[in-house]
């Protein structure tokens, strides 16, 4: 591995602050400076907290029922997760970041690494401020920017930047002082098991990990552990992953808002998931050769029998046609459905994905393709313009009482005109 010009390498990590909360605040100015939390699917656990919510003691990942009293006492605003909104805002943020560097790794829905090696040291912190200001101005989303010469150190810098008024840190001097006060469990790449190992051996901060002997690291951890140590020493070992690799499989599943018994309701759920998955792979210009449908009851319900099953069907011709996939999925569902159970979750997996342009040696392929492509294109364009599932199939149902519980949804959809704020003059 080559480490030429390491001193000139500069990696920035841009992280959106309390991203889901920030997205909700975009359309609701009244909740700007009060405690806000966003809940997971079916309003189960806390997955995003405002700074104000953190101050009153609400922890990340805590079940909602455990914090209900705290929420009521402190007038905390609660929101159900709205992934359509968060995904759209994320795409806007990432598009802005691509304007600052052509080398970008989108790490998660609210984080991205970008290469700023082309910026001089004396200008890089101001450049980071420009990034932060533009994202805030163009999207309304506040961010923190951490910059250093390795990805691991930029993660450390970002952690520090969140507590800094400016929100931007270029970590190049006094690194050891920062690492000495950086908890070992907060180091990027150090999970629960490694944390236990390090703490058992007296390594409780990032500086001690940085100074640990190479022989001990190689003997006691894995390749990632060794790379983390090298990166803390300022030696880049984890490259930016700038290639947008296409998915190898596509899974769509949801837990039900309330338990489902009937086959008809399960058909509605599987059909809806199938339509969403088919749309996803069409957007990636892919087709599938295999579909798996699965159902299960709750493994935590001790008062009822547990049942879980799946069925996989290989398709004779690769397709991304929603109607064909729904028909196949329902066939699989019928084979595994058992009467008398209270089902908690259903889903489908599309696998053996390939580029849609890859032709198969089958006489029927050209005929089927021409008919289905026009129909699917019209369906996708209509749903994109007027909102998801405006055009659907009858088997998806209408009322969908099985859908996720979202009692605190803001019902904001940036792709729907019906969701635009209304004003009167």
Can you give a write-up of this model?
- The protein is of the alpha+beta class and about 425 residues long.
- The chain folds into 3 domains: about 1-170, 2-Layer Sandwich (Alpha-Beta Plaits), CATH 3.30.70.270; about 175-245, DNA polymerase, domain 1; about 250-395, Dna Ligase, domain 1 (2-Layer Sandwich), CATH 3.30.1490.
- The protein contains 14 helices and 13 strands.
- The strands form 3 sheets. A 5-stranded mixed sheet has the order 5-6-1-7-8. Strands 9, 10, 11, 12 and 13 form a 5-stranded antiparallel sheet that branches.
- Strand 7 (about 145-150), helix 6 (about 150-160) and strand 8 (about 170) form a beta-alpha-beta unit.
- Helix 4 runs antiparallel to helix 5 (about 120-140) and helix 12 (about 265-285) packs antiparallel against helix 13.
Task: Give a short overview.
This protein has three domains: 169 residues, Alpha-Beta Plaits; 72 residues, DNA polymerase, domain 1, CATH 1.10.150; 147 residues, 2-Layer Sandwich (Dna Ligase, domain 1), CATH 3.30.1490. The protein is built from 14 helices and 13 strands. The radius of gyration is 25 Å and the shape is globular.
One letter per element, helices H and strands E, the order comes to: EHEEHHEHEEHEHEHHHHHEHEEHEEH
Percentage of β-strand residues: 15-25%
CATH-defined fold name of the largest domain: Alpha-Beta Plaits
- Main sheet: strands, sense, barrel: 5 strands, mixed
Strand order of the largest sheet: 5-6-1-7-8
> Total helix count?
14
State the helical fraction. 25-40%
State the total count of DSSP E strands: 13
Please tell me the CATH architecture of the largest domain by its name.
Answer: 2-Layer Sandwich
Give the CATH class of the largest domain.
Alpha Beta
CATH superfamily of the largest domain: Reverse transcriptase/Diguanylate cyclase domain
Instruction: From the alpha carbons, calculate the radius of gyration and give it in angstroms.
Output: 25 Å
Summed up, the domain count is 3
Distance between the termini: 65 Å
Which parts are unreliable, with pLDDT below 50 for 5 consecutive residues or more?
1-5
SS-derived structural category: alpha+beta
Shape: globular
Oligomeric state of shown chains:
single chain
The overall average pLDDT, rounded, is 86
